[in-house]
Design goal:
By secondary structure, the protein is mainly α. It has helices at 5-40, 44-63, 69-88. Helix 1 (5-40) packs parallel to helix 3 (69-88).
Length: 89
């Protein structure tokens, strides 16, 4: 356990960030699942609308430091690819 005042503060900060990160990751996963569900149902309009809501949520998680920038790009790219494939076919 932390004994110095600065170490105790750092411990409190880390716990706050850990809880926030879990919440943000969970909401991003939920948004991604909604896009994938729309793609599975072959719902063209629904998949596009959920994707437009998902992209800012994923980017916001990256700006908060929850995800790495390249992880964010990869997730967005894969989702966009699936939605575009649905709209072409």
């Amino acid at each position: 356990m932390a004994t110095h005042k600065s170490a105790e503060k750092r411990s409190r900060q880390n716990e706050k960030r850990r809880v926030r990160n879990i919440s943000v990751k969970s909401s991003v996963r939920t948004v991604i699942k909604s896009v994938l569900a729309a793609v599975e149902e072959k719902d063209k309009a629904g998949s596009v609308s959920t994707l437009t809501a998902a992209v800012p949520a994923i980017r916001k998680a990256a700006s908060k430091g929850v995800f790495h920038k390249k992880t964010t790009s990869r997730k967005i790219s894969r989702l966009t690819k699936k939605v575009n494939a649905l709209n072409k076919g």
